[in-house]
RNA sequence: GGGGAGAUACUCAAGCGGCCAACGAGGGCGGACUGUAACUCCGCUGACUACGUCUUCGCAGGUUCGAAUCCUGCUCUCCCCA
């Protein structure tokens, strides 16, 4: 049995644990669970930390259980929230659960014959049949309101004067989540719950229930909330959340997110989000310090995580796309791409169409940037960009007098426009 | 209820009869540099049929050759006294 706690410690993934947890885990194979909120039909990289907790857990020889919060998702966790949550209906939740399940399969081994194969459960399955009366009689009786009120998640909501208060529903959340732990303890020998450090309060309600009702002992491990060194929120890019689903965040953008992490964060993240061992990571860090501009850390981090989430084929494509967009690729390189690759690379770039006649006549730059396409918000904006020497056609800088004609078409129907280095626009001809 | 201050572009904030599409700062965007970074430097940042024209300074009227600037009314915000 590999020492899970030690593993978490050097990776910087241990925030807090209940006394005795380490010994408990070293004795024999144990089952632990982490809950996931099915609030969307995809997980995002913020969920990656608890996922990695489970994945490392399984690699240490223990049995990970992923709990999809169908029931708890209907209530809404008040932790860290300043206002009442919106509730989702059952159909949406069911759909989301299916999607989340598929994504977790990339990280956890659900199908092996080993004793520690991962298991997926949905708390809706056991919560749905419990009546309100049963619950308050059999479970509620054992926990005092005083105890519940002492939790930070509750205190913060009822004490802050600006808030609208807290509904009974949300107040009950910790009981429902705590009951999950009790249920898993009694039915699946689950003795450990893990989660982000904001979940500590909810988890201890669970261990309390296990002590009082289950006559047993439950353990808890929390991991730190992931931060970014510049203070912005982890897992957000300009486009919003960075999702694990390629339909929401393309593999290319996903890779780019990791590649763009700061040096300081990359050191932290590579420990958390990859399975690389300590020795490998240390030598990578050393290598990075010698030549920071090579960004070996960021590249390796991006490689590992993208491979894990999207697979090797998608990773290779992301690299290819990155080279075209940021490497020294020329107009000729662009024109040599076949249509499918070209579209893959520029997936998600704003597009507009112009007619073949426009091209035949020769399309002026104002028309291409604004008048006919609305890529930029006004003709003035387009003129400004041209004056700033910011506009490129097929990666070559052009001025206001440039006219797009048939010779500029890629794959006979596309023209790649750029304003500055980072904003691309794709013009296609019909 | 009484008294006072104010509302200006994405934000903060000057301007107080013509020289105002409106100082300055922040932000945003672009250029040089660079590691697809940080720092630094430079430029741009109302629109258009663009060396000119048009619409903007809480809203609606008015005075004037001419108003963001003066007058009247309205709406909203803040402060002080009761």
Automatic annotation (TrEMBL):
Does the keyword field hold Transferase? no
Q: Which residues bind L-tyrosine?
A: 33, 173, 177
Task: Please report the stretch or stretches of sequence annotated as the Tyrosine--tRNA ligase SYY-like C-terminal domain.
Answer: 344-427
Give GO MF terms, alphabetically.
ATP binding; protein homodimerization activity; RNA binding; tyrosine-tRNA ligase activity
Compartments (UniProt record): Cytoplasm
Q: Which PROSITE patterns match?
A: AA_TRNA_LIGASE_I, S4
Please give the HAMAP family that the UniProt record associates with this protein: Tyr_tRNA_synth_type1 (MF_02006)
Q: Where is this motif: 'HIGH' region?
A: 38-47
One GO BP on record is: tyrosyl-tRNA aminoacylation
> Would I find Transit peptide among this entry's keywords?
no
| Name of the protein in its database record | Tyrosine--tRNA ligase
Alphabetical list of Pfam families matching this protein = SYY_C-terminal, tRNA-synt_1b
**Residues binding ATP, per UniProt:** 236
Give Gene Ontology CC terms: cytosol
The short sequence motif called 'KMSKS' region sits at 233-237
Matching entries from NCBIfam families are given as: tyrS (TIGR00234)
Q: What is its EC number?
A: 6.1.1.1
Record's catalysed reaction(s): tRNA(Tyr) + L-tyrosine + ATP = L-tyrosyl-tRNA(Tyr) + AMP + diphosphate + H(+)
Q: What is the annotated role of this protein in its UniProt record?
A: Catalyzes the attachment of tyrosine to tRNA(Tyr) in a two-step reaction: tyrosine is first activated by ATP to form Tyr-AMP and then transferred to the acceptor end of tRNA(Tyr).
- Quote the InterPro entries the UniProt record gives: aa-tRNA-synth_I_CS (IPR001412), aa-tRNA-synth_Ic (IPR002305), Rossmann-like_a/b/a_fold (IPR014729), S4_RNA-bd_sf (IPR036986), SYY-like_C (IPR054608), Tyr-tRNA-ligase (IPR002307), Tyr-tRNA-ligase_bac-type (IPR024088), Tyr-tRNA-ligase_bac_1 (IPR024107)
Which keywords accompany this UniProt record? Answer: Aminoacyl-tRNA synthetase, ATP-binding, Cytoplasm, Ligase, Nucleotide-binding, Protein biosynthesis, RNA-binding
Q: Which family does it belong to?
A: Belongs to the class-I aminoacyl-tRNA synthetase family. TyrS type 1 subfamily.
What do we know about how this protein assembles, alone or with others? Answer: Homodimer.
**Main EC class the enzyme belongs to:** ligase
């Amino acid at each position: 049995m590999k020492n899970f706690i030690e593993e978490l410690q050097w990776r910087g993934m241990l925030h807090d644990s209940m006394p005795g947890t380490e010994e408990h885990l070293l004795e024999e194979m144990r089952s632990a669970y982490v809950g996931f909120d099915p609030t969307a039909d995809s997980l995002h990289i913020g969920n990656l930390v608890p996922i990695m907790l489970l994945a490392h857990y399984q690699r240490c020889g223990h049995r990970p259980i992923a709990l999809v919060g169908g029931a708890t998702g209907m209530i809404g966790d008040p932790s860290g929230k300043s206002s009442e949550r919106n509730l989702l209906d059952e159909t949406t939740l069911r759909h989301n659960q299916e999607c989340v399940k598929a994504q977790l399969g990339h990280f956890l081994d659900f199908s092996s014959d080993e004793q520690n194969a991962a298991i997926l459960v949905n708390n809706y399955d056991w919560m749905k049949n419990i009546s309100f009366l049963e619950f308050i009689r059999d479970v509620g009786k054992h926990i005092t309101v005083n105890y519940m009120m002492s939790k930070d998640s509750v205190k913060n909501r009822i004490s802050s004067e600006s808030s609208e208060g807290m509904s009974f529903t949300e107040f009950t959340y910790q009981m429902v989540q705590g009951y999950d732990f009790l249920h898993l303890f009694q039915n699946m020998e689950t003795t450990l719950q893990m989660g982000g450090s904001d979940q500590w309060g909810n988890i201890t309600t669970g261990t309390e229930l296990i002590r009082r009702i289950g006559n047993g002992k439950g353990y808890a491990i929390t991991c730190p909330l992931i931060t970014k060194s510049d203070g912005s929120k982890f897992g957000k890019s300009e486009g919003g959340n960075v999702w694990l689903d390629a339909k929401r965040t393309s593999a290319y953008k996903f890779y780019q997110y990791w590649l763009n992490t700061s040096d300081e964060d990359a050191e932290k993240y590579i420990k958390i989000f990859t399975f690389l061992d300590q020795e490998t990571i240390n030598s990578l860090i050393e290598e990075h310090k010698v030549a920071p501009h090579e960004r070996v850390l960021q590249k390796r981090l991006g490689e590992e995580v993208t491979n894990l989430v999207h697979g090797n084929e998608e990773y290779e494509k992301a690299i290819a796309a990155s080279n075209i967009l940021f490497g020294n690729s020329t107009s000729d390189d662009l024109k040599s791409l076949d249509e499918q690759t070209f579209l893959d690379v520029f997936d998600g770039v704003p597009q507009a169409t112009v007619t073949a006649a426009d091209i035949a006549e020769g399309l002026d730059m104002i028309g291409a940037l604004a008048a006919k396409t609305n890529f930029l918000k006004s003709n003035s904006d387009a003129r400004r960009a041209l004056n700033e020497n910011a506009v490129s056609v097929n990666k070559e800088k052009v001025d206001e007098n440039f006219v797009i004609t048939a010779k500029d078409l890629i794959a006979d129907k596309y023209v790649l426009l750029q304003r500055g280095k980072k904003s691309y626009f794709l013009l296609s001809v019909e």
